[in-house]
Design goal:
Length: 313
């Protein structure tokens, strides 16, 4: 469980380590004509995604508390979390080893190696990479870094919403964001509790949040589709479920076709290169899966840019 106070503590800890990413106010007409709308360009964050925030908070907290061993860190990731942990470790003087699925995009694997991380590809799904990473951490004594189900990670992700509140003067009604394992959603919902609604958007083929809320707890789901490389968690995190249940996060599902169209829209309309997982949040508006009320002030988090842009031309 995390609360607003944990997010505030994370913001103080990682200050100066992450970028204050910009907002882009956009014409709402192509998305939701009656609303006022901004895009939070978290895809300009270090390593190309919001995950640098949570990674730094976890690694720095471990170092402060004497829990960061000489063996460094071990992480499992579909790509983005591994990049973030590798970056945070390198800036903290610690070695990093990252396990990724064999399906991880080549661009992410190359970036991991460029950051100095040892990379092992194993299995077809994130869950298999996670199992291998946990075994490796137990063998070496390294700090295991879960991609989305650690309090420091979730709280760190929520710091982007403290920025949003500062940048808008608190004039936000709704935040739309993509959900995989739910770390970003958990941090943002905790940061906004009592102040704004959070809408968690996920692919129809990977409904971790929707299924968890329906079943009363996280359950395993099948993983497939265009966004599986970044939203491919098999189940929602326990922290994410607790925060979503407490704060009333609204789950919304979108099709792969809508995600692909939204990704192309972001490029053609704003010249923004986004991952399919990132585009899911935009797809909810373009496909009408979430319809803002007249005058609703809507923030859409664009959370990652680690993708091959060759199919956008």
């Amino acid at each position: 469980m995390i609360a607003h106070s944990d997010v505030a503590a994370a913001a103080a800890r990682i200050a100066g380590r992450v970028r204050r990413t910009p907002l882009l106010e956009v014409d709402p007409a192509p998305l939701a004509p009656a609303a006022r709308m901004w895009l939070k360009l978290e895809l300009t964050q270090h390593t190309g995604s919001f995950k640098a925030r949570g990674a730094f908070n976890h690694v720095l907290a471990a170092r402060e508390e004497g829990r960061l061993p000489d063996a460094g860190i071990v992480a499992a990731s579909g790509g983005n979390a591994g990049l973030a942990f590798a970056y945070a470790a390198s800036r903290s003087g610690a070695p990093a080893e990252v396990f990724v699925p064999e399906t991880a995009p080549a661009v992410k694997v190359a970036l991991l190696r460029a950051l100095g991380a040892a990379v092992t590809q194993v299995g077809a799904r994130y869950a298999e990479a996670q199992d291998a990473a946990q075994k490796r951490a137990a063998e070496t004594g390294a700090l295991f870094c879960h991609a989305y189900d650690l309090p420091e990670v979730c709280a760190g992700q929520g710091t982007l919403d403290l920025e949003i509140l500062e940048q808008t003067g608190g004039e936000i009604d709704t935040v739309l964001l993509s959900v995989g394992g739910g770390g970003l959603m958990a941090g943002v919902a905790a940061a906004l509790e009592g102040r704004a609604r959070v809408v968690g958007v996920e692919p129809e083929r990977i409904p971790t949040l929707e299924r968890a809320l329906h079943e009363g707890g996280p359950v395993a789901v099948d993983v497939s589709g265009v966004a599986a490389d970044s939203l491919g968690a098999t189940r929602l995190g326990d922290i994410a479920f607790s925060v979503a249940s407490r704060t009333g996060v609204l789950p919304v599902l979108v099709s792969d076709e809508a995600i692909v169209a939204a990704r192309r829209f972001l490029w053609s309309e704003y010249r923004l290169v986004a991952e399919h997982g990132t585009a899911a949040a935009v797809a909810a508006l373009r496909a009408g899966a979430y319809r803002p009320e007249p005058g609703e002030r809507v923030m859409v988090v664009l959370c990652g840019a680690n993708t091959d842009p060759s199919d956008l031309a």
